[in-house]
Amino acid sequence: QSALTQPASVSESPGQSITISCTGTSSDVGGYDYVSWYQQHPGKAPKLMIYDVSQRPSGVSNRFSGSKSGNTASLTISGLQAEDEADYYCSSYSSSSTYYVFGTGTEVTVL
Amino acid sequence: QVQLVESGGGVVQPGRSLRLSCAASGFSFSGYGMHWVRQAPGKGLEWVAVIYFDGSIKHYGDSVKGRFTISRDNSKNTLYLQMSSLRAEDTAVYYCARDRGGVVAVQPDYWGQGTLVTVSS
Q: How many other CB atoms sit within 10 Å of the CB of residue A53?
């Protein structure tokens, strides 16, 4: 199963904004609004940050936002904080041979 | 609150079988789809399988099709993953996750803490 493509790493200073891209195909990201984003701190379980492309679960900071254009979804973190330093994964339903697929993951570093 | 506790991990020889369990509490288990997701040491997340709320629909990742079986016992609030013909590349932390809910089970929301499976001779 082919993973969705994310940049390996993104770095930025506190207070700034970053955007993480997630590129798939028309069989997954581009074809359905079932894109999710997860945050994972070292040694911890993933935490859902965004679902349905742009919806935030209760309790997730509004500094996190999601969007999609064509086959590429994006996660934006504004007002970057030290606690945002983590790995981030996108995911999507897929109509191809596999049912569900994760992105390759992006390591976010707060400088 | 939603709680998911995985168990059954350990060291197993290549070619052998192992069954993982995930005990759920804090929500109406029989009303939600459930996923298994794994993460090899130092690697990214890999989706393994999903089972719908009533067990009627199951899907598997390409790398485990024909070797792994997902099942559930709604009377025991427990999810299972039967793994057979295990390979070294199946070594990973295995997470169970609840689906957020909806017509299709395509968005895991709450996750357990995971159980480590090591396949080695």
A: 18
Confidence class for position B82, pLDDT limits 50, 70, 90: very high
Burial group, residue A51, by CB count within 10 angstroms (0-12, 13-18, 19+): buried
Alpha-carbon dihedral sign for residues B32, B8, B39, B68: negative
Q: Taking the mean position of all CA atoms in its chain, how far away is CA B96?
A: 5
8 Å CB contact of A93 and B61 = no
* Contact call for A102 and B47, based on CB within 8 A: yes
pLDDT (0 to 100) of residue A1: 57
Instruction: Tell me how far apart the alpha carbons of residues B89 and B110 are, in angstroms, rounded to a whole number.
Output: 26
Render pLDDT for B58-74 as a digit per residue (tens, 0 to 9).
999 999 999 999 999 99
Residues of B in contact with A36 (CB under 8 A): 107-108
The CB-side HSE value for B31 (13 A sphere, CA atoms) comes to: 7
H/E run at residue B36:
strand B34-39
Chain B environment of A102 (Cβ under 8 Å): 37, 44-47
CB contact under 8 A, B111 and A52: no
Contact between residue A80 and residue A19 where contact means Cβ atoms under 8 Å apart = no
